[in-house]
Design a protein that fits this description.
By secondary structure, the chain is mainly α. The chain is built from ten helices and no strands.
């Protein structure tokens, strides 16, 4: 089929899978930020004694995690995983094709380099590898202790997401590693956001300038949601924990 065999088709698949992951990041970051809101409302760490979903008295972050435990979300997990795999495979393939077409790994060492080439655009492969590598590290902290036991009965289920936050971000060096990861995601999104729209045809000069600005704003919002969650958990674990 054209969409799978042509370069344009592969770029389109890359853009659509990227859009799906962008929406997931926004949802995930928003739910994580609920823990910061809980800190200001006195609900941080509040988890009802029962095992029911959406129990009265749970903190907002716990309620958000309950939402992620719904059956419809469990169905979305393999779809998300597939979208992520497709995004990685096609991203690597397109990068290889670009390197091959432009003369190898030193393809950017040319006098006619376009002014629109940003650092993130020239290093999407490196950024992607960093993001990919840390995702597996991140999964061992949360997904493996909440979704994995529910889905496959592997490991011990942890019903207190605040505890996982405090344990994960209780050390300053862990917060530093996560912040570096969030920075890599920021750079990756700054280029990926407008590139996604360019691929589907929004390539006009006026709109492209707007999309690049919107991309930076969106990437910054995502960064702040996740960074605030990590820093707040560090403060809670080291200075405010009972």
């Amino acid at each position: 089929m054209f969409i799978f065999n042509s370069s344009i088709g592969k770029k389109f698949i890359q853009a659509i899978s990227g859009a799906f992951l962008v929406l997931f990041l926004l949802l995930h970051g928003t739910i994580n930020f609920f823990s910061v809101i809980d800190s200001f409302t006195g609900k941080y760490g509040v988890v009802a004694a029962d095992e029911n979903l959406f129990s009265e008295g749970d903190g907002l972050f716990k309620l958000g995690c309950d939402f992620m435990s719904l059956s419809i979300i469990d169905i979305m997990v393999p779809i998300l995983a597939l979208g992520f795999i497709v995004h990685v495979i096609y991203g690597g393939w397109l990068t290889f094709q670009n390197m091959k077409a432009r003369g190898g790994i030193k393809r950017y060492e040319v006098s006619s380099k376009a002014a629109t080439d940003s650092w993130s655009a020239r290093n999407m492969l490196v950024l992607g590898i960093i993001v990919l590598g840390f995702i597996f590290f991140h999964l061992t902290h949360f997904w493996a202790k909440m979704q994995l036991p529910e889905l496959f009965g592997i490991g011990n289920f942890e019903n207190n997401p605040y505890l996982l936050l405090n344990v994960t971000f209780g050390s300053w060096w862990m917060v530093a590693l996560y912040l570096l990861w969030f920075v890599a995601i920021w750079f990756h999104l700054c280029h990926g956001f407008w590139s996604m729209f360019q691929t589907i045809g929004w390539s006009g000069q006026t709109w492209m300038k707007r999309l690049k600005v919107i991309g930076v704003i969106f990437a910054t919002l995502i960064f702040l949601l996740f960074a605030a969650t990590a820093v707040n958990a560090f403060v809670q674990a080291n200075f405010l924990a009972a």
